[in-house]
Specification:
seven-stranded mixed beta sheet, alpha/beta, about 25% helix, Rossmann fold, globular, 2 domains, DNA Methylase, Chain A, domain 2, two-stranded antiparallel sheet
Length: about 350
């Protein structure tokens, strides 16, 4: 593939593998990149990816793709970027049987595609546990494939709250330039964003209610028992603050005493906890609103992932499904981390 060699070229051109709803692409776009295409197995992500990023979405299994499909998108007249975030579930600390999940091989597949395509830049984002997975075997293979193809890599465990993301989240970020070293990820000047600075401006809603002007600003309903628990919850507290009669049976057992971060409220003056695919549920983590008696809404979860307030996930006439949107949000690369990656790439040519 032709390498762009002028330092005066315009926008880097991006193809995004495992693109989901386009969070990484959007961060790269905000940094000044041009999004050409995104690939994902979830065809439902098409609307969000194309609406917010302008590239074309393709429903494809990256594990079955060829390098030629990717190469056909680039013009050859601008720096080329191959980006991706292989599914991180195989490397989760909660997962016990790694070998049963065929997705772990997608990290290697991504490296092999990059080696064949030979873009000017390669970037991958994943969970930090990838570096330890199978005693580091998978990450070493990934690194070796890229090194042998002429890409010295820079791997960073990024603290997302240092990059303008109002969330405590750790992510492994790999950035490589063909034949060259690439600059470090630079923290955002506007660090220290808090839950209040991110979502404090949104209008109040009740549990089970959606705001009429934004269907994504919707909160899960609460059972009568969970509403009592919510009212008893303190920002930054735990279920140990509740009266004994409100505690779940699993919490009363010795095995439940090590899980204080469920059925809990966020704190206004701190970053949020890590957004997961279940971030809309009060009982799934510290996802209670700081002062309203409800879990955070889907829109609030998206903003805490640093999506813009107006990011469009669905057509205007479609009602959001909590589990689907929650999965998209929880699996997303924080947008502002994507912007930092884009800034690092642009500063390197």
């Amino acid at each position: 593939m032709k390498k762009a060699n002028s330092r005066n070229l315009g926008q880097p051109e991006v193809v995004d593998l495992f693109c989901g709803v386009g969070a990484l692409s959007h961060g790269l776009k905000l940094a000044g990149c041009k999004i050409l295409a995104g690939y994902d197995t979830d065809e439902r992500c098409k609307y969000a990816f194309e609406k917010n990023n302008g590239g074309e979405f393709f429903t494809r299994d990256v594990g079955k793709m060829s390098a030629y499909e990717i190469m056909g998108h680039y013009s050859g007249d601008a720096p080329s970027v191959l980006a991706g975030c292989a599914p991180c579930q195989p490397f989760s600390t909660y997962k016990q049987r790694y070998d049963e999940d065929p997705q772990w091989g997608l990290v290697t597949k991504f490296a092999e595609l990059a080696a064949e395509v030979q873009p000017d830049f390669v970037t991958m984002e994943n969970v930090p546990a990838l570096k330890r997975y199978k005693d580091g075997e998978v990450f070493r293979r990934f690194k070796n494939i890229l090194n042998e193809a002429g890409y010295p890599i820079r791997a960073t465990i990024a603290k997302c709250e240092l990059f303008g993301v109002p969330q405590q989240r750790r992510r492994l970020v790999v950035v490589a330039a063909r034949g060259d070293k690439i600059g470090r990820l630079l923290p955002d000047e506007a660090v220290g964003k808090t839950v209040k600075s991110a979502i404090g401006h949104l209008p109040s809603i009740a549990a089970g209610e959606a705001h009429p002007s934004d269907s994504l600003h919707v909160a899960s309903a609460l059972s009568p028992l969970n509403m009592k628990r919510m009212k008893a919850a303190k920002p930054g507290g735990t279920w140990r603050d509740w009266p004994e009669d409100l505690r779940a049976a699993c919490h009363r057992r010795a095995t439940g005493k090590t899980y204080p971060g469920v059925y809990a409220r966020m704190e206004w003056d701190k970053p949020s906890p890590t957004m997961t695919t279940q971030c809309f549920g009060f009982g799934n983590g510290r996802f209670g609103h700081p002062d309203q008696d409800r879990a955070i809404s889907l829109r609030e979860a998206a903003i805490l992932q640093s999506f813009p307030d107006d990011y469009r996930f669905l057509p205007p006439d479609e009602k959001p499904q909590m589990k689907e949107i929650g999965r998209w949000i929880g699996n997303a690369v924080p947008v502002e981390l994507g912007r930092a990656i884009g800034n690092s790439i642009i500063a390197s040519y």
